[in-house]
Design a protein that fits this description.
single chain, 160 residues, alpha+beta, 3-stranded antiparallel sheet
Length: 160
């Protein structure tokens, strides 16, 4: 059996992209940096995010019933760091964003976005898996921001 620290070390060996998950509740935008997400289905378009139930964002998403996954580009590392820092008072200050169909904030400069309605919630261990039905999505050209072994990375190279 694996202990928590060994498991965390093993998961740090898996490179991922970086996203900011946003929601909107009681007239206020909220968001957090995440990399625990995955595509679930193409028909209908669905994805999942995993959120720690102890985090403030968990109850916001559960109560709002909406979220947007904003996939970040390489030049948005500072944005990822800002939303990962709980001490930042207003992470949305000076960040151009708009709202699509659900009302969750969509970053104007995101590499891609998926605006979702919560379809299902599943409690597993310390987290909830929120499965969202994508209402709108979009992309722009760019290089994704990566994360590997506790460090932001450039995954923009192509191997042929």
């Amino acid at each position: 059996m694996s202990d928590s620290e060994t498991f965390k070390a093993a998961m740090r060996c898996f490179p991922t992209g970086v996203a900011v998950v946003t929601t909107f509740l009681n007239g206020r935008p909220k968001g957090f940096t995440a990399n625990a997400l995955a595509s679930v289905s193409v028909e209908p378009p669905m994805l999942l995010i995993c959120v720690n139930r102890a985090s403030r964002s968990h109850s916001l998403i559960s109560n709002a019933g909406i979220f947007c996954v904003n996939l970040l580009s390489l030049e948005q590392q500072a944005l990822a760091m800002s939303f990962a820092n709980n001490r930042v008072k207003d992470s949305f200050a000076n960040i151009p964003h708009h709202r699509e169909s659900t009302g969750a904030p969509v970053f104007d400069d995101a590499l891609a976005f998926a605006d979702c309605m919560v379809a299902q919630e599943h409690s597993v261990g310390t987290h909830t898996i929120f499965i969202g039905t994508v209402q709108r999505s979009g992309t722009r050209p760019g290089i994704p921001l990566g994360y590997f072994n506790g460090t932001y990375r450039d995954f923009g190279c192509v191997i042929s």
